[in-house]
TrEMBL record:
Chain intervals for the UniProt region annotation (Disordered): 63-85
PANTHER family: TETRATRICOPEPTIDE REPEAT (TPR)-LIKE SUPERFAMILY PROTEIN (PTHR34377:SF3)
UniProt feature, compositional bias: Pro residues: 63-74
Keyword hit for Signal: yes
Record carries keyword Signal: yes
Signal peptide feature range: 1-25
Full protein name: Bifunctional inhibitor/plant lipid transfer protein/seed storage helical domain-containing protein
Keywords: Signal
Length: 157
């Protein structure tokens, strides 16, 4: 390669790096977006150790089997101990870690992810609540369902 070509390339690179952006530049007015993929990765890693406990649907109300009431049962002679024990929930270390990282996720990330849901699953204003355990409720608030111009889908032909 010729020495003059190398100088030209170096000058062009320096010009491009040091030249201030014009007023019509796409970079001038954009606000920095949160690092959503890394936030989701941290939450995914922290919450991956949680046990999967599916919530069963509520059971239907039971109907009486007969129209006649059952006869009263004879009194029992056993002594039942009735202790008023109030069980307080203690958060495990895994739940605490998952909750801590979930609270760090930016609502913009969640809303940008959920804006891709089908229309029948969305509403004008959203409040998505995630319950990690009884001690940890996180709510993400999203505005109306609009996409930013760079997320617009191509028009239908």
């Amino acid at each position: 390669m010729d020495i003059h070509n190398i100088r030209k390339i170096v000058l062009i690179v320096i010009f491009l790096v040091l030249h201030p952006s014009g007023s019509r530049s796409q970079w001038s007015g954009n606000q920095p977006s949160p690092l959503c993929p890394s936030q989701f990765a941290l939450v995914n890693h922290a919450c991956s150790l949680l046990p999967f406990l599916p919530v069963s649907p509520p059971s239907p109300p039971s109907l009486p089997l007969s129209l006649h009431p059952a006869p009263p049962s004879p009194p029992e002679r056993r002594h039942r101990r009735r202790h008023a024990r109030h069980h307080e929930y203690t958060e495990t270390a895994v739940e605490e870690n998952c909750c801590r990282w979930m609270k760090q996720v930016d609502s913009v990330c969640v809303c940008d992810l959920l804006v891709r849901l089908p229309l029948f699953l969305s509403r004008p204003v959203h409040h998505y609540t995630i319950m990690i355990d009884p001690a940890c409720n996180i709510t993400f608030e999203c505005g109306s369902r609009t996409r930013s111009p760079n997320q617009m889908l191509p028009p239908f032909p």
